[in-house]
What does this fold into?
Amino acid sequence: MGYGQVLPHAASEGLVRLNVGGVRHAVDPQTLLRFPHTRLGRLLRCQSEAAVLELCDDYSDPEREFYFDRNPQVFLCVLNFYRTGHIHTMEELCVFSFSQEIEYWGICEFSIGNCCSNWYHERKENQEDRHWDCYSDDQAPPSFDSSMEELSALDEDLVKFKGAWCSELRSYIWLRLEDPTHSRSSKILAVVSLSVVLTSIVAMCVHSMPDYQQHDKNDKPIEDPVLTLLEGICIAFFSVEFVVRLVVAPSLCRFLAKPLNIIDVASILPFYATLALETADEENEDLQNVGKVVQVLRLMRVLRILKLARHSVGLRALGATIRHSFEEVGLLLLFLSVGISIFSALIYFAEKEDQDTDLGTIPSGWWWATITMTTVGYGDTCPVTVAGKIIATLCIICGLLVLALPISIIFNKFSKYYQRSKAMESQGIEKPERKDPELPYYSIRDLFSENLYPFLGGLAYRGSVSSKGDTDASSLKDMEMSEKDMEMSEKDMEMSEKDMEMSEKDMEMSEKDMEMSEKDMEMREKDMEMSEKDMEMSEKDMEMSEKDMEMSEKDMEMREKDFWEKGPRGL
It folds into this structure.
């Protein structure tokens, strides 16, 4: 068996046949190739017997069928994952058995749908608490529960490259820019990018020092040439990096919607806006006013610090925590707003009669209540009356209670995301295939013509075909069927069960030949020279198809005689 040709056969037939636990499935290969890093996705690219047998339990060459000795019920969920991109759990199955099944098929828990994710992980955690109490906090196995994040998003990006322009080059660059652990070159790029970000931040901080702030005769600030050059180099690097990411991105809309890319734009644009206005006519009053506004925009350079999130697991975990904790954050702000409103009003009524107090208005009470409830306590404003101090004590206690409840939930989420991110890096979760192997290119038309024309030449020599253009696919099939029937009749004269099966197949082929002959007749009507000969050949083909029901020597001799009689004329 040629395992290198297993998949071309399956592709030509249009379906991949899978037998999972005795249940057979026929699947479109393109559906499985949506996720090339999974077991079935890798199976479609196998080119050797050893590679095939590593991924499946057995393979039937005659039936072109892959066999897997796995749970057939879970495979229905796996098959639905290839169609929708999400896998849904089975309540009747143990969570650990389900986890082992999807791990076997190469599907990570990131792909569990949001509707099933909470139930699945809660049930799994309960089982872990019940049976795995021997683990300490340091020994507990890491949990990878969450929705699709970095690896699954990278997988989706790789799938989108298929069929796009310059897909190989773009995916090559994209992987090295987005995945620092992909190769040595990607690690070098990550280190260089991190160094430039840190250099830009240090230059921005040094620029604020008095020693580097000079003025000309008109008391106009002069930029330090070294810091200006350093900032220009950093901005040039950021600009080139952003443009390259933009060009090779698989989806432009999704790329521009990512928070990290928005941060990149916000940290680059103020520099170019300021540079454009500084090079314009400075005598124009409008431009000078706009330039003052742009000077404020230069404060946005501090956003470059957030670019460290590309290289920091902690910052990415913090961003994921805030993104998934908007309800808890909203609850925290609501509690603070209610408490600030109540205690600012109470402190106003308690302190308004005292002339030495700084809390004579409710807005000033807002500031005091905010720093008190958050336990900051600047000390710039404080109550002086006994009633005010009692209210301040209640405000502090209330602030501790209000902050403790939501912050504990937010901290637990942050700890979970941080541990998951660190575990992903330390345990080396399987990443998507980096590059699909190139299959050799074959032209079916050229291969067919190279093998067909010598065959037609042999027939022409025997007097059956006069030229290359005097035949078609239907007549060739008829001739092949006739030769097969003649060989069968000579070898086996008795009507056996095998002959009956062959005759039924011949009948089906004959019906198909009749349909093809009718289509040929319609096409040949347009050709005035060949119409009469084609009609005669089609009628004789129909008569021959009806006579295929009787498997006798007399019918076969008549068919052979008719074939050779009509050959020189009809063909």
Q: What stands out?
A: Residues 386-427 form the longest helix (42 residues). The chain has four domains: 3-131, 152-311, 324-427, 472-570. DSSP finds 23 helices and six strands in the chain. Strands lie at 16-20, 23-27, 58-60, 65-68, 214-215, 221-222.
